[in-house]
Design brief:
74 residues; mainly alpha; 3 helices
């Protein structure tokens, strides 16, 4: 089943590359994927949360947003 999701992920990623730069697409895929897994770990698996973890997640999301906005500024 996991291979189906990987195939779907790569298919959607390929479609996304038709409209946005690869650096932006990969940052969204990797950064937000990592942040989402961390949030799932906190809520679903009751992993410990502290201020550093929350700040780090905010920095990851801010970095992805910054990359998206930098494309519009240039």
């Amino acid at each position: 089943m996991i291979f189906v999701f990987y195939a779907a992920s790569f298919s959607v990623f390929t479609l996304a590359l038709k409209g946005i730069d690869v650096s932006i697409a990969y940052a969204i895929w990797a950064g937000l994927g990592t942040a989402l897994i961390a949030v799932i770990g906190i809520f679903w698996f009751k992993e410990p949360v502290n201020a550093l973890k929350i700040i780090s997640l905010i920095v990851v999301v801010a970095g992805v947003i910054g990359l998206n906005l930098s494309d519009r500024v240039a």
